[in-house]
Amino acid sequence: VEFIGSYAEDENAWPSEAVPEVAFLGRSNVGKSSMLNCLFGERAAKVRFVVSKTPGRTQLINIFSARGGAGGARELCRFADLPGYGYAKLAKEDMRAIEGFLMQYLERRAQLKLLILLVDARRDALDSDAEILDFAADMGVGFRVLVVATKVDKLSAMEAALNLARIRDGFGLPEELPLPFSAVTGQGRKEVWQYIREACEMDRRKQ
Predict the structure, then answer these.
(1) Torsion angle defined by CA atoms of residues 120, 64, 43 and 144, in that order, rounded to the nearest 10 degrees
(2) Structural contact between residues 27 and 129, judged by C-beta atoms closer than 8 angstroms
(3) What is the CA radius of gyration of the chain?
(4) How many domains does the chain have?
(5) How would you classify the pairing of strands 74-81 and 144-150?
(6) Checking DSSP bridges between strand 74-81 and strand 21-26, what pairing results, if any?
(7) Is the dihedral of CA 18, 141, 40, 30 positive or negative?
(8) Mean pLDDT in consecutive groups of 10 residues from the start of the chain, 207 residues
(9) Residue range of the domain that includes 116
(10) At what angle do helices 127-139 and 157-171 cross, to 10 degrees?
(11) What per-residue string of b and e applies to 77-107 under the rule 16 or more CB within 10 Å gives b?
(12) Which of 39, 92, 103, 117 makes a 20 to 30 Å CA pair with 63?
């Protein structure tokens, strides 16, 4: 995994290569950076996703390239670490700018094949997350959405089952979602990778 660059709202500056892209999005402090570190592990030794002590700090799109094959010669896909939203201590105008930036990316990024929306397993379905799902559904564009419930290690098995059911009902998700995930235990890691592979392989078959 190699870092490509950080990008602001000028979409003309975004990487334009026709490489399938997977985006990670969630409220500030939902555990996105921890999830990315868990997913990439030692394969990302040269790329460290920083777990910030200040939620809402990332206000750019950070894009990474995943390569494979002999000597890493083949670019398999790209990963977009999107800005967190919903952090109360950000000024309202800053929050609106970030949310507009996110909607712009979701609406106009043709390379996007899978959106991974992270929600906190300890919380009920939140309006801000529902707005993201509604926006994606209303656009009817060509990317899949995977809802992942993070921090399930902080709940007992019974608490996790009840909370996941409430989130599922709150968002109107299918039975298999949200996918439970823990950056501490690695639960859900294999399943997330399966969704990523399927989304990228579907894109290659279409080409």
Answers:
(1) 50
(2) yes
(3) 16
(4) 1
(5) unpaired
(6) parallel
(7) positive
(8) 86 92 92 90 50 52 84 84 70 60 88 95 91 83 90 97 96 96 96 94 63
(9) 2-206
(10) 50
(11) bbbbbbbbbbbeebeeeebeebbebbeebbe
(12) 92
3-state secondary structure the chain: CEEEEEECCCHHHCCCCCCCEEEEEEECCCCHHHHHHHHHHHHHCCCCCCCCCCCCCCCCEEEEEEEECHHHCEEEEEEEECCCECCCCCCHHHHHHHHHHHHHHHHHCCCEEEEEEEEECCCCCCHHHHHHHHHHHHHCCCCEEEEEEECHHHCCHHHHHHHHHHHHHHHCCCCCCCEECCCCCCCCHHHHHHHHHHHHHHHHHHC
64: nearest Cα among 54, 73, 76: 76
Q: What is the pLDDT of residue 101?
A: 79
Output phi, psi for 113, to 5 deg.
-115, -20
Length in residues, the chain: 207
pTM for this one? 0.87
**Domain holding 181: CATH number?**
3.40.50.300
